[in-house]
Amino acid sequence: MTNNRQQILCVWDFDNSLIDENSDTWIVEKLAPDLRGFMSEFHRAHPGQWTALMQQVFFKLHERGITRADYERSINDIPVSSANLEAIRLLHRAGADVRILSDANTFFIEAFLKHHGLSPLISHVASNPAHFDLTGQLRIDPYTLACPLPCPCQLCPANLCKGQVLSDWLHPVSQCQFDRVFYVGDGAGDLCPALRLSRPVGYVLARAGCSLERLLSKRLALDGLVPHLPQMAATNADPPAKIGAAGPWVGVWRSGEDVFQFFSSQLNG
């Protein structure tokens, strides 16, 4: 709880947001880089079926004798900014409810959190469920929460509408209200949750040079506002752009240091 007892929710995407890689492609590069061609061919033949692709990859890795320990060693080596890890610790100390919302899988995310000592600081992990069966093969199932109506972003995969998950978190049966909601993301799949937020409560932190920044910049231009999102400076307390008349405040970050300094200014300012 912050000094003014605000209720704060901070939601992180995982791949290329909390960490600096795509965890699925990282695992393949580390354990079986020759499968890159298979992944490309499957993705071209079955667009939008990434979770099904990864199940096939896990099957092939199992055939090669890849074990849980092999996965864990590779996950432990995923590049991550120490400043992002410190940002999560800072948020937790401030009493924020910190959650992860990702189209990766629960095993990768939970193994990463355990390795970095962050598991007790994360209240929810919403991702495609994954587990090891009795033979030691890693299996993944789709999250299967789609938007009940056509998604406003028109970009959500069939298995996971992040916007719907965020909406469910923001409007629970308990009617718990958050004073501020932060969303940290990078990709096209993060547009839907970004559009579910509104000022003055909602803040979106978009990674520079990635799809989310480009899509939000396009939305700004359509609304007749600035064509490009401003870069987040470590000295700024608030991102200075907003999407539409009531959309969230948005800023662009380039490094974990940007993210940490932003949260430091928000929580301690």
Automatic annotation (TrEMBL):
Pfam families assigned to the protein according to its UniProt record, in alphabetical order: Put_Phosphatase
Cofactors demanded by this protein: Mg(2+)
Record key words, sorted: Hydrolase, Magnesium, Metal-binding
InterPro entries registered for this protein in UniProt: HAD-like_sf, HAD_hydro_PyrdxlP_Pase-like, HAD_sf, Pase_PHOSPHO-typ
Name by which UniProt lists this protein: Pyridoxal phosphate phosphatase PHOSPHO2
The keyword Endoplasmic reticulum belongs to this UniProt entry's keyword annotation: no
Keyword Metal-binding listed: yes
